[in-house]
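sorry to bug you again but im stuck and you know this stuff better than me. what follows is a protein written twice so to speak, once as letters and once as structure tokens for the fold. id like you to explain what the token line says about the fold, in plain words if possible. anything you notice is useful, everything is just below.
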Amino acid sequence: MDDHTTMFGSDFDCSNLSSSTLLDYSPSYFTSTDVFMGCFDPIVSPEETDMNPLDDYQEVFDNRLIQAFENLYQGCEVFTDLLVQLWLPVIRHGKLVLTTVNKSFIITSSDNTNLLNYREVSKNYQFAVEYDATEMIGFPSHVFMNKFPTCTPDLRVVAEGDDPRVIYAKKLHLCGCLNLPVFELDGGTCLGVVEVATTSQKINLRDEFENICKALEAVDLRSSEFLIHPKQKVFSEPYDAVLAEIQDVLRSICNTLNLPLAQTWGPYEGRSGTISVIESASYVFDTEILGFFEATSSQQLVSGEGLIIR
């Protein structure tokens, strides 16, 4: 393949790949501690999934998303090491689930083997669209149900229970992951989820987010206002003094226990029910984690999302 390859389609024809390119999904590849192997069904094929669109509107919506991905495909040529894939609700065996099988995707990479493998892994999962459903919960589920995006700057620190694909993401050396809800321009119903995964050490995905938003807006769709926000400095002097004391305490704890990072989260002014990092009350002990700190400092969390407010 070329030094830099961009793939776009509704599903890549894996028959064109050599047998050494795709991941060996046999048990020997994974250790006995990989508890999510039981959730992975490598024998499911698109022809056997009994998947149907929700209604006639779904076909029109799908066509608009295909056009959005074509627009995004042009913009993604400047990025490397990205997988962008679409999750949509379908009826499978009488149940409503989220799937990425036969949905649009883009891969841009100088060596796309790991991203192709993660694409294949994702195609073999279906996720719940309701919390009381019997299906598994994954990143796309949280976004679809809460109508709010999630950004995971470093998948190495994510628990496997948050998404059963995490165990594969780690083995395939994926780093960051971004999931965005898709809405009509004037609607509040989540219609699908755009997922971005990367093997790059770049953990701030703001540029990718902005490109996706532009591609959606071109076909009269949108994502949410998102969790990236301008940094604010609106504290009074007495409050500043308290924050400085908190930072001193965190500095002492990190230095004593060799903890890489301590962050303080507080209410975000201007948006009820959200919190963000208070930089002046946080401390970075390990400079290698600085990128993670900068990425999370530009994000918001809403009620019920993230470890911070559980």
